[in-house]
Protein backbone atom coordinates (compact mmCIF):
# COMPACT_ATOMS: atom_id res chain seq x y z
CA UNK A 1 0.00 0.00 0.00
CA UNK A 2 2.95 2.31 0.77
CA UNK A 3 4.63 1.73 -2.62
CA UNK A 4 1.47 2.16 -4.64
CA UNK A 5 0.76 5.52 -3.07
CA UNK A 6 4.24 6.95 -3.77
CA UNK A 7 4.46 5.57 -7.30
CA UNK A 8 1.21 7.16 -8.32
CA UNK A 9 2.34 10.52 -7.03
CA UNK A 10 5.57 10.22 -8.92
CA UNK A 11 3.74 9.33 -12.11
CA UNK A 12 1.70 12.45 -11.82
CA UNK A 13 4.80 14.60 -11.26
CA UNK A 14 6.61 13.04 -14.21
CA UNK A 15 3.69 13.68 -16.52
CA UNK A 16 3.57 17.27 -15.40
CA UNK A 17 7.28 17.74 -15.94
CA UNK A 18 7.15 16.28 -19.44
CA UNK A 19 4.38 18.58 -20.44
CA UNK A 20 6.42 21.53 -19.38
CA UNK A 21 9.58 20.26 -21.25
CA UNK A 22 8.50 18.46 -24.42
CA UNK A 23 10.99 16.25 -26.27
CA UNK A 24 11.89 16.29 -29.93
CA UNK A 25 9.96 13.27 -30.99
CA UNK A 26 6.78 12.06 -29.31
CA UNK A 27 5.63 9.19 -31.40
CA UNK A 28 3.57 7.72 -28.61
CA UNK A 29 1.33 9.13 -25.94
CA UNK A 30 2.57 9.96 -22.46
CA UNK A 31 0.64 7.17 -20.91
CA UNK A 32 2.32 4.63 -23.19
CA UNK A 33 5.81 5.92 -22.25
CA UNK A 34 5.18 5.70 -18.51
CA UNK A 35 5.74 2.10 -17.56
CA UNK A 36 4.04 0.45 -14.68
CA UNK A 37 6.24 1.05 -11.66
CA UNK A 38 5.78 -0.89 -8.51
CA UNK A 39 8.93 -0.48 -6.37
CA UNK A 40 11.16 2.34 -5.24
CA UNK A 41 14.19 0.91 -7.08
CA UNK A 42 12.34 0.89 -10.39
CA UNK A 43 11.29 4.49 -9.93
CA UNK A 44 14.86 5.61 -9.16
CA UNK A 45 16.27 3.71 -12.12
CA UNK A 46 13.74 5.33 -14.40
CA UNK A 47 14.59 8.77 -13.12
CA UNK A 48 18.33 8.20 -13.68
CA UNK A 49 17.75 6.85 -17.16
CA UNK A 50 15.64 9.81 -18.18
CA UNK A 51 18.11 12.21 -16.72
CA UNK A 52 20.93 10.62 -18.71
CA UNK A 53 18.92 10.70 -21.94
CA UNK A 54 18.37 14.38 -21.57
CA UNK A 55 21.26 16.43 -22.69
CA UNK A 56 22.58 17.53 -19.40
CA UNK A 57 19.02 18.13 -18.26
CA UNK A 58 19.02 17.89 -14.45
CA UNK A 59 16.16 16.35 -12.38
CA UNK A 60 14.46 18.61 -10.02
CA UNK A 61 16.00 17.90 -6.65
CA UNK A 62 12.83 18.90 -4.86
CA UNK A 63 11.00 16.08 -6.56
CA UNK A 64 13.41 13.53 -5.19
CA UNK A 65 13.34 15.15 -1.77
CA UNK A 66 9.53 15.20 -1.72
CA UNK A 67 9.47 11.61 -2.70
CA UNK A 68 11.93 10.67 0.02
CA UNK A 69 10.07 12.70 2.62
CA UNK A 70 6.88 10.93 1.73
CA UNK A 71 8.68 7.61 1.84
CA UNK A 72 10.03 8.47 5.26
CA UNK A 73 6.63 9.43 6.51
CA UNK A 74 5.23 6.24 5.13
CA UNK A 75 7.87 4.19 6.92
CA UNK A 76 7.01 5.91 10.20
CA UNK A 77 3.38 4.64 10.03
CA UNK A 78 2.75 2.26 12.92
CA UNK A 79 0.57 -0.72 12.17
CA UNK A 80 -1.53 -2.26 14.86
CA UNK A 81 -0.41 -5.65 16.14
CA UNK A 82 -2.37 -8.30 18.03
CA UNK A 83 -0.75 -7.18 21.27
CA UNK A 84 -1.83 -3.58 20.80
CA UNK A 85 -5.32 -4.69 19.89
CA UNK A 86 -5.55 -6.80 23.08
CA UNK A 87 -4.24 -3.86 25.10
CA UNK A 88 -6.84 -1.53 23.60
CA UNK A 89 -9.55 -4.08 24.24
CA UNK A 90 -8.41 -4.40 27.86
CA UNK A 91 -8.40 -0.62 28.28
CA UNK A 92 -11.86 -0.43 26.76
CA UNK A 93 -13.17 -3.01 29.21
CA UNK A 94 -11.60 -1.11 32.12
CA UNK A 95 -13.32 2.05 30.96
CA UNK A 96 -16.63 0.22 30.73
CA UNK A 97 -16.19 -1.01 34.28
CA UNK A 98 -15.38 2.45 35.51
CA UNK A 99 -18.51 3.88 33.94
CA UNK A 100 -21.31 4.03 36.50
CA UNK A 101 -24.26 2.26 35.11
CA UNK A 102 -27.62 3.86 35.90
CA UNK A 103 -29.61 1.78 38.34
CA UNK A 104 -33.06 0.81 37.15
CA UNK A 105 -35.47 1.19 40.01
CA UNK A 106 -38.72 -0.80 39.96
CA UNK A 107 -41.83 1.09 40.95
CA UNK A 108 -42.76 0.69 44.58
CA UNK A 109 -45.55 -1.96 44.31
CA UNK A 110 -47.28 -3.56 47.28
CA UNK A 111 -47.49 -7.11 45.96
CA UNK A 112 -49.62 -8.28 48.89
CA UNK A 113 -52.31 -5.72 48.12
CA UNK A 114 -52.11 -6.56 44.44
CA UNK A 115 -52.56 -10.26 45.21
CA UNK A 116 -55.52 -9.57 47.49
CA UNK A 117 -57.19 -7.40 44.85
CA UNK A 118 -56.75 -10.09 42.19
CA UNK A 119 -58.05 -12.73 44.61
CA UNK A 120 -61.08 -10.60 45.50
CA UNK A 121 -61.92 -9.99 41.86
CA UNK A 122 -61.61 -13.71 41.12
CA UNK A 123 -63.93 -14.62 44.00
CA UNK A 124 -66.48 -12.02 42.92
CA UNK A 125 -66.40 -13.35 39.37
CA UNK A 126 -66.90 -16.95 40.47
CA UNK A 127 -69.73 -15.98 42.84
CA UNK A 128 -71.47 -13.98 40.14
CA UNK A 129 -71.36 -16.92 37.74
CA UNK A 130 -72.61 -19.24 40.48
CA UNK A 131 -75.52 -17.01 41.49
CA UNK A 132 -76.92 -16.56 37.99
CA UNK A 133 -76.37 -20.12 36.79
CA UNK A 134 -78.13 -23.41 37.52
CA UNK A 135 -75.24 -24.37 39.81
CA UNK A 136 -76.98 -22.49 42.64
CA UNK A 137 -80.29 -24.36 42.27
CA UNK A 138 -81.50 -26.95 44.78
CA UNK A 139 -80.94 -30.39 43.27
CA UNK A 140 -81.43 -32.66 46.28
CA UNK A 141 -83.59 -32.51 49.43
CA UNK A 142 -82.84 -34.99 52.19
CA UNK A 143 -85.32 -35.58 55.03
CA UNK A 144 -84.09 -37.42 58.13
CA UNK A 145 -85.73 -38.50 61.41
CA UNK A 146 -89.34 -38.65 60.30
CA UNK A 147 -91.12 -41.76 61.65
CA UNK A 148 -94.83 -40.99 61.50
CA UNK A 149 -94.79 -37.98 59.19
CA UNK A 150 -94.59 -38.51 55.45
CA UNK A 151 -91.75 -36.88 53.56
CA UNK A 152 -94.20 -35.29 51.13
CA UNK A 153 -96.05 -33.55 53.96
CA UNK A 154 -92.81 -32.19 55.39
CA UNK A 155 -91.71 -30.85 52.00
CA UNK A 156 -95.11 -29.31 51.37
CA UNK A 157 -95.00 -27.55 54.73
CA UNK A 158 -91.45 -26.31 54.18
CA UNK A 159 -92.15 -24.85 50.74
CA UNK A 160 -88.72 -25.97 49.53
CA UNK A 161 -88.62 -27.46 46.04
CA UNK A 162 -85.94 -28.63 43.68
CA UNK A 163 -84.92 -25.78 41.41
CA UNK A 164 -85.17 -23.08 44.10
CA UNK A 165 -82.09 -20.92 44.48
CA UNK A 166 -79.97 -22.00 47.43
CA UNK A 167 -79.22 -18.45 48.53
CA UNK A 168 -82.92 -17.46 48.46
CA UNK A 169 -84.16 -20.21 50.78
CA UNK A 170 -85.88 -18.90 53.92
CA UNK A 171 -84.91 -21.73 56.24
CA UNK A 172 -86.28 -20.04 59.37
CA UNK A 173 -89.70 -19.63 57.83
CA UNK A 174 -89.65 -23.23 56.57
CA UNK A 175 -88.79 -24.46 60.07
CA UNK A 176 -91.68 -22.49 61.56
CA UNK A 177 -94.11 -23.96 59.02
CA UNK A 178 -93.05 -27.51 59.87
CA UNK A 179 -92.98 -26.85 63.62
CA UNK A 180 -96.71 -26.10 63.44
CA UNK A 181 -97.27 -29.86 63.22
CA UNK A 182 -97.85 -30.93 66.86
CA UNK A 183 -95.95 -34.19 66.42
CA UNK A 184 -92.75 -32.30 65.59
CA UNK A 185 -90.51 -31.69 68.59
CA UNK A 186 -87.47 -30.22 66.83
CA UNK A 187 -86.74 -29.21 63.26
CA UNK A 188 -83.49 -28.08 61.68
CA UNK A 189 -82.93 -27.15 58.03
CA UNK A 190 -79.39 -26.74 56.73
CA UNK A 191 -77.94 -25.87 53.35
CA UNK A 192 -75.21 -28.20 52.19
CA UNK A 193 -73.48 -26.29 49.43
CA UNK A 194 -73.55 -26.27 46.54
CA UNK A 195 -76.93 -27.91 45.79
CA UNK A 196 -78.26 -29.91 48.74
CA UNK A 197 -80.77 -29.17 51.53
CA UNK A 198 -80.96 -31.35 54.63
CA UNK A 199 -84.12 -31.36 56.80
CA UNK A 200 -83.63 -33.04 60.18
CA UNK A 201 -86.88 -33.81 61.98
CA UNK A 202 -87.25 -35.00 65.56
CA UNK A 203 -90.74 -36.23 66.37
CA UNK A 204 -92.39 -36.71 69.72
CA UNK A 205 -92.57 -40.38 70.60
CA UNK A 206 -96.01 -41.98 70.36
CA UNK A 207 -96.69 -43.86 73.61
CA UNK A 208 -100.30 -44.87 72.99
CA UNK A 209 -103.56 -44.32 71.17
CA UNK A 210 -107.04 -43.27 72.22
CA UNK A 211 -110.18 -44.45 70.44
CA UNK A 212 -113.24 -42.38 69.60
CA UNK A 213 -115.99 -43.40 67.16
CA UNK A 214 -113.77 -46.17 65.85
CA UNK A 215 -110.97 -43.73 65.04
CA UNK A 216 -107.59 -43.89 66.74
CA UNK A 217 -105.56 -40.81 67.66
CA UNK A 218 -101.93 -40.92 68.79
CA UNK A 219 -100.92 -39.96 72.31
CA UNK A 220 -97.54 -38.23 72.39
CA UNK A 221 -94.90 -38.39 75.08
CA UNK A 222 -95.67 -34.74 75.91
CA UNK A 223 -99.23 -35.87 76.93
CA UNK A 224 -100.84 -34.34 73.85
CA UNK A 225 -103.50 -36.21 71.88
CA UNK A 226 -103.37 -35.55 68.14
CA UNK A 227 -107.07 -35.08 67.42
CA UNK A 228 -107.72 -35.24 63.70
CA UNK A 229 -104.52 -37.15 63.05
CA UNK A 230 -105.89 -40.62 62.31
CA UNK A 231 -103.47 -43.50 62.60
CA UNK A 232 -103.60 -47.27 62.88
CA UNK A 233 -102.65 -48.30 66.44
CA UNK A 234 -99.18 -49.82 65.98
CA UNK A 235 -96.19 -50.24 68.30
CA UNK A 236 -98.09 -48.75 71.26
CA UNK A 237 -101.15 -49.70 73.36
CA UNK A 238 -104.69 -48.40 73.07
CA UNK A 239 -105.57 -46.43 76.24
CA UNK A 240 -109.09 -46.59 77.75
CA UNK A 241 -110.90 -44.51 80.39
CA UNK A 242 -108.04 -42.20 81.37
CA UNK A 243 -108.47 -38.47 81.90
CA UNK A 244 -106.94 -35.62 83.81
CA UNK A 245 -104.17 -36.42 86.22
CA UNK A 246 -104.62 -40.17 85.70
CA UNK A 247 -103.95 -39.72 81.99
CA UNK A 248 -100.87 -37.60 82.66
CA UNK A 249 -99.56 -40.11 85.21
CA UNK A 250 -99.97 -43.02 82.81
CA UNK A 251 -98.15 -41.15 80.02
CA UNK A 252 -95.25 -40.44 82.41
CA UNK A 253 -95.01 -44.18 83.13
CA UNK A 254 -95.22 -45.11 79.44
CA UNK A 255 -92.29 -42.80 78.74
CA UNK A 256 -90.18 -45.07 80.98
CA UNK A 257 -91.16 -48.25 79.14
CA UNK A 258 -88.60 -49.83 76.84
CA UNK A 259 -89.81 -49.35 73.20
CA UNK A 260 -89.45 -53.09 72.56
CA UNK A 261 -91.75 -53.87 75.50
CA UNK A 262 -94.15 -51.08 74.56
CA UNK A 263 -94.77 -52.79 71.21
CA UNK A 264 -95.95 -55.95 73.01
CA UNK A 265 -98.73 -54.14 74.97
CA UNK A 266 -102.15 -54.32 73.34
CA UNK A 267 -104.46 -52.29 75.62
CA UNK A 268 -104.42 -50.47 78.97
CA UNK A 269 -107.57 -49.82 81.05
CA UNK A 270 -108.01 -47.57 84.04
CA UNK A 271 -109.43 -49.85 86.84
CA UNK A 272 -109.70 -48.00 90.16
CA UNK A 273 -111.22 -49.78 93.18
CA UNK A 274 -112.01 -49.05 96.84
CA UNK A 275 -108.47 -49.64 97.99
CA UNK A 276 -106.60 -47.83 95.18
CA UNK A 277 -107.35 -45.17 92.58
CA UNK A 278 -104.19 -45.93 90.58
CA UNK A 279 -104.86 -49.52 89.52
CA UNK A 280 -104.71 -50.40 85.81
CA UNK A 281 -105.43 -53.48 83.71
CA UNK A 282 -102.91 -54.34 80.97
CA UNK A 283 -103.55 -56.79 78.13
CA UNK A 284 -100.51 -58.13 76.29
CA UNK A 285 -100.33 -59.23 72.64
CA UNK A 286 -99.52 -62.81 73.72
CA UNK A 287 -102.83 -63.04 75.71
CA UNK A 288 -101.42 -62.53 79.21
CA UNK A 289 -103.16 -60.18 81.63
CA UNK A 290 -101.52 -57.82 84.15
CA UNK A 291 -102.81 -55.63 87.00
CA UNK A 292 -100.50 -52.80 88.10
CA UNK A 293 -100.23 -49.31 89.56
CA UNK A 294 -99.82 -46.76 86.78
CA UNK A 295 -97.35 -44.76 88.90
CA UNK A 296 -94.89 -47.71 89.04
CA UNK A 297 -95.92 -49.55 85.88
CA UNK A 298 -93.17 -48.09 83.70
CA UNK A 299 -90.25 -49.50 85.62
CA UNK A 300 -91.83 -52.89 86.47
CA UNK A 301 -93.10 -53.83 83.01
CA UNK A 302 -89.56 -53.74 81.60
CA UNK A 303 -89.02 -57.11 83.33
CA UNK A 304 -92.03 -58.66 81.62
CA UNK A 305 -90.01 -60.89 79.30
CA UNK A 306 -88.39 -62.73 82.21
CA UNK A 307 -91.72 -63.09 84.02
CA UNK A 308 -93.43 -64.39 80.91
CA UNK A 309 -90.76 -67.03 80.38
CA UNK A 310 -91.14 -68.17 84.03
CA UNK A 311 -94.95 -68.49 83.76
CA UNK A 312 -94.90 -70.36 80.49
CA UNK A 313 -98.33 -71.51 79.18
CA UNK A 314 -100.24 -71.01 82.46
CA UNK A 315 -103.39 -68.87 82.34
CA UNK A 316 -103.92 -66.21 84.96
CA UNK A 317 -103.19 -62.64 86.10
CA UNK A 318 -99.72 -61.21 86.73
CA UNK A 319 -99.98 -58.96 89.76
CA UNK A 320 -97.48 -56.05 89.53
CA UNK A 321 -99.52 -53.75 91.77
CA UNK A 322 -98.23 -54.93 95.15
CA UNK A 323 -96.96 -58.50 95.38
CA UNK A 324 -95.41 -59.10 91.93
CA UNK A 325 -97.09 -62.53 91.87
CA UNK A 326 -98.93 -64.75 89.40
CA UNK A 327 -102.65 -65.41 90.14
CA UNK A 328 -104.19 -68.37 88.24
CA UNK A 329 -107.69 -67.82 86.84
CA UNK A 330 -108.93 -70.82 88.83
CA UNK A 331 -108.48 -69.01 92.19
CA UNK A 332 -111.10 -66.91 94.05
CA UNK A 333 -108.79 -63.90 94.11
CA UNK A 334 -108.58 -63.86 90.31
CA UNK A 335 -112.38 -64.01 90.05
CA UNK A 336 -112.72 -61.09 92.53
CA UNK A 337 -110.25 -58.96 90.53
CA UNK A 338 -112.15 -59.63 87.34
CA UNK A 339 -115.49 -58.63 88.98
CA UNK A 340 -114.05 -55.31 90.20
CA UNK A 341 -112.71 -54.43 86.77
CA UNK A 342 -116.00 -55.18 84.98
CA UNK A 343 -117.79 -52.19 86.63
CA UNK A 344 -115.78 -49.58 84.70
CA UNK A 345 -117.55 -47.85 81.71
CA UNK A 346 -116.49 -48.86 78.22
CA UNK A 347 -115.44 -45.39 77.03
CA UNK A 348 -113.40 -42.71 78.69
CA UNK A 349 -115.69 -39.86 79.83
CA UNK A 350 -113.26 -37.10 78.82
CA UNK A 351 -113.27 -38.33 75.21
CA UNK A 352 -117.04 -38.28 75.13
CA UNK A 353 -117.01 -34.71 76.43
CA UNK A 354 -114.50 -33.69 73.78
CA UNK A 355 -116.63 -35.19 71.03
CA UNK A 356 -119.71 -33.38 72.34
CA UNK A 357 -117.85 -30.07 72.46
CA UNK A 358 -116.57 -30.53 68.92
CA UNK A 359 -120.06 -31.26 67.67
CA UNK A 360 -121.45 -28.12 69.31
CA UNK A 361 -118.64 -26.01 67.80
CA UNK A 362 -119.32 -27.48 64.37
CA UNK A 363 -123.03 -26.65 64.61
CA UNK A 364 -122.25 -23.10 65.69
CA UNK A 365 -119.95 -22.62 62.69
CA UNK A 366 -122.63 -23.98 60.35
CA UNK A 367 -125.13 -21.48 61.71
CA UNK A 368 -122.68 -18.62 61.10
CA UNK A 369 -122.39 -19.60 57.40
From TrEMBL:
Q: What is this protein called?
A: Cell division protein DivIB
Spell out the subcellular localization from the entry.
Answer: Cell membrane; Membrane
Q: Native species of this protein?
A: Nosocomiicoccus ampullae
**What superkingdom does the record give?**
Bacteria
Q: What sections of the protein cross the membrane?
A: 111-132
Domain spans labelled POTRA: 136-204
User: What is any Pfam family matched here?
Assistant: POTRA_1
Q: Does the keyword Cell division apply?
A: yes
Q: Provide the membrane topology annotation.
A: Single-pass type II membrane protein
Q: What does this protein do?
A: Cell division protein that may be involved in stabilizing or promoting the assembly of the division complex.
